[in-house]
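TEACHING EXERCISE
Course module: macromolecular assemblies
Task: Read the component lines below, then compare them to the predicted structure of the full complex.
Student: A.B.
Group: 4
Components provided:
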Amino acid sequence: MRHKDRKNMLLQYATALFLILILNFFLPRMMPGDPFLILSADQENEVISVLTEEQRQYFIGYYGLDRPVYEQFINYICSVARGDLGESIYYKVPVIEAIWTRLPWTALIVIGATIISTVLGVLLGLFSARHREKATDKLLIMGLISFAEIPSFLLGLIILLAFSVKLKIFPLAGAITPFAHYSSIFDTVWDIGYHAILPIFTLALTQLTGIFLLTRNTLITVMTKDYIRTARAKGIGDTLVWHRHALRNALLPVVTRVGFQIGMLMGGAVLVENVFSYPGVGGLLRSSVIARDYPLIQGIMLIMAVCILTANYLVDIIYERLDPRTASFEAA
Amino acid sequence: MSCEPVLRKRDAAIWASIKASINLAAKEAAKYAYFIADSTKKAEDLIGRFTDAGKMGVAGLIIIILMAVFAPFITFYGPSAISGDSLEPPGRDHILGTDELGMDIWSQICYGARMSLVIGLAVALIAGLGGGILGLMAGYLGGNWDKALLRTIDIIMALPNFPLLIVIAAFLNPSIINVILVLVFLSWAKPARVVRSQALSMKKQNYIISARLQGASPAYIIKRHILPEALPVIFVSILNISSHAIVAESGLAFLGLGDPTSKSWGMMLHYATSFKSIYFTPYWQWWLMPPLIALVALLLCLAFIGRDMERLVDPRLKSGR
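Instructor-supplied answer key:
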């Protein structure tokens, strides 16, 4: 039931995106006040220039606010499609540029966390499934489940207090050492990795449990299948059966899970970046919230939404490719 | 003088009505007493079947609720009263010390519990019950209602929650009501979907079919048969939604999008982490740690209760198997 045909899926994601665009368009227009009542208030001299009716009409015409709402909306959609998200009030640069300079840092920790949580989750899941109902298995489940209940930014604060403030092993803030001179490319990579490790680890921990439980439970189900018995009957060694026959087939749901957690990771990254003062999009968001830089807030949210929707859509397609049964079942 | 009998008559009438209403109230009270006793007994039975972690969760949750309800009696200062020096360490006057503005941290923690609990409870009740009932009706009535609801659920579930929450909170003024409304809008879809599929499968049960054949209306069947069966599932989703809502509220507040006039744990985290040299001074120990511990404790309690409830409602969902 969950995987519908591709056209339906696309329609669903497109509608979600459209809803977001509508929201982005109407939210500023729903705010009280008229932007043309006071156009400029000079901070130093406290001179407030009030527009004359003539000037007012000019500006309303200039910004296209005298047009019907639907026309304004179409204009808005067109400019978004062109990548024009307006100008940041605080940074005085185009919104898209402000986001673009910060996006690599966010991508780094989100991708890093995805890789670490997936690899570690699958390995731990395999280990746990092979040692099912033993003390290590139970301990692992208890520990990881408790971690999963703590939201990422609280976990990040705990990790920051423990490793950076108390033990002083890792840096408190930032993505690179300020004013550092790197002697080689290796140094650069080391410094970036050293700063990124805590945020990545925090994000990975929040997603680890899901992957771990999924791998473990799927493996346990898969191991009861007939082809596993066949493989064993052929005299294949235990390790090979687990790795080659069982794990491969158990990875399918993991792929979907990894894709869908990208959305959660991006939401988490916004908060975690602020915990570690990491210079990604999340940090940008907090400073734009504090500065009430509305175009920037809207732009960030739009970019994030598009990333998440695209990731989820791609996962739906990949899943269909990986498991042809889902497509044929629906057709039948 | 002549009006006396009239008065007496009226008095009698009033007396009679008072007596009647007292009788009625007594009867109602008896009914409610039975209901309360019954539900306490049920709750006791339920908690009796919890694991140790679940029992701890219930105990912790009760402590936090008591802290919130009796906040004025267990604190010595108002949460926004400047009652001491700036950043006093924990001591005799201030159990947990004071923050940058000299406000008592212990009382901020107690009053902050109210915020978290109110947001969690309100969002979960409205979204859980509303979504659940929508799902029930769609699942039971089927047809175009069902299709329309499924479509809406799919779209809502596809919406990226947190970015949306941030942008709406940034534009609307960040009052509690607005945060609650947005969270309700984003979280009703899941219980609706779960309950809908349950209603779909129950619809085909023989006793429902026979009730329908005897002429019971859909409203009656939903109220009498399907809703009671679906309530446990709705209850589990209420628990889940409430912890999501608490996380979302504190996350927003942490970003600086909370209600600045309110004292919530997320706002405390926001002010503490905004303080420039918080990590280079010992202040974090009594300014940052209490709200952090309180939030983690509350969320863990809710999670433990939720996991046990899930296990009891549907044994197949048992995760550690």
